[in-house]
Amino acid sequence: MRWVLPLLLSLGCSISLAQTEPNAGHWKTWVLTTGNQLRLPPPPDEAATREEIAQLKVIANQRDSTTLDQITWWNAGPPGYRWTSIAIPPGQANATLHSRIMALLSVAIYDATIAAWDSKYAYNRLHPTAFDPALTAALPNPPSPSYPSEHAVVAGAASTVLAYLFPDKSRLFQCPSRGGSPGVGTGWAALPQRRESRP
What we know:
By secondary structure, this protein is mainly alpha-helical. The protein has a domain at 50-188. 45% of the residues lie in helices and 0% in strands. The protein contains 7 helices and no strands. The protein has helices spanning 4-10, 46-61, 65-74, 81-87, 95-123, 128-131, 150-165. Helix 1 (4-10) packs across helix 5 and helix 5 runs antiparallel to helix 7. The protein is globular. The termini are far apart.
């Protein structure tokens, strides 16, 4: 039954205490052998962190109402919430196709989330605002380590699955810096390039 909570989270159910779960990286996975199979390398050293903080300050100073609206939209629930709503194409319902889409997407989001939480608690990295209190976060920091950003990890997994399922629209799901167009990926484009969420 340990898989029920992460499955609900990947489908968009909100359980605020789940974000503090230090053992989530040890939950049973569907495709990965274990949560640490894809453990990320350690976060950067102090000098690189200072450079990242400087970049985050520039980004934070460029926030406008459109950016804040996108942040709010993507933060409406757990990291997988918006991806599950994006996954079902508009038009006539097709139970077989939609079930396949949701199954593949949910498994990818679930395993990616477990892998992210494994790395989070392996490194216990503070949030950028803890490194530099002059940096302002657009949203409150969750009570969990910051590295890696679970939104970025889920975005990577979800966009890969959606690009596979919809090859004719794959550019919509890619980060623009990797050749994608500014479509669905626009809202999360900066996240995979930053180690932390919520600049």
